[in-house]
Specification:
5 helices; alpha/beta; five-stranded mixed β-sheet; 2 domains
């Protein structure tokens, strides 16, 4: 009986592995079949200022407008350059605020029975329609230190009893949405870069010594955010099999 039980367990595990491999192959083949795409970006209209840690449990996050940084335009431009070698990228019109208003993150657990919140928005709010796929880039979320959520572009100050740490982050996720069915072919949050700081985040981030609470974000902070996006976007697209290989 024990041998039979082990055989059943082994067979079940093999079936799961085969199913996962088949699903991966299907996604990869669907991505490889894409020829025309449009790019939506909606992460860069505001910057959060977060204070956290043992001495900052009662503080609330603040935000500053950074629309003048034109981060979404930069993301669309960089994504277009990365994809143009294999795909034909079509300029899009869409309401950026409508995409930015949706709070849903690939970093957090996702209810697989719930329809993706961007599906209908791409169907109803993006022009032109009829492309093979749409790449949607929006804010992602991660935990900081004691469990406080941070998302999108932001500057975080984490205080302990012994030291203060500054952290700049540009957290985002990328969806590939089928242009005919509007189903999500692939969804992935940009991962951490090669910086493993004292207070790591599950996404692009790095140390910074800029003080919080200034009247306006500085050009140095913008350069740090642009660097995070510029270095992480090719890696994320590569992981999603949009470029390379």
């Amino acid at each position: 009986m024990r041998r039979i039980a082990f055989l059943w367990i082994g067979l079940a595990a093999a079936c799961v592995a085969l199913g996962a491999a088949a699903a991966f192959e299907t996604r990869a083949s669907r991505i490889q079949a894409i020829k025309t795409v449009g790019i939506v970006s909606a992460i860069g209209e505001e910057m959060s200022l977060t204070q956290a840690g043992l001495t900052r449990l009662g503080t609330t996050a603040q935000s500053l407008p950074i629309s003048a940084w034109a981060l979404d335009e930069l993301i669309v431009q960089q994504a277009t350059r990365l994809l143009e070698g294999r795909l034909r990228v079509q300029p899009l019109t869409y309401r950026r605020a409508a995409f930015a208003a949706i709070r849903d993150s690939a970093v957090a657990p996702v209810n697989l029975l719930r329809s993706d919140p961007f599906k209908e928005l791409v169907r109803s709010d993006v022009a032109p329609q009829g492309l093979d796929a749409y790449i949607v880039i929006t804010r992602a979320r991660s935990k900081l230190g004691n469990g406080r959520n941070v998302e999108g572009v932001g500057l975080a100050e984490y205080r302990t009893l012994l030291a203060d740490y500054g952290l700049i982050h540009a957290l985002y996720e990328v969806r590939i949405i089928d242009g005919k069915s509007f189903n999500v072919i692939e969804k992935r949050a940009a991962g951490p870069l090669d910086n493993t700081g004292t207070v790591p985040l599950a996404g692009p981030s790095g140390p910074v010594d800029e003080a919080l609470g200034g009247s306006a974000p500085s050009e140095r902070l913008r350069a740090a955010v642009v660097d995070l996006i510029t270095r992480s976007l090719p890696v994320t697209f590569g992981d999603m099999h949009l470029i390379g290989g």
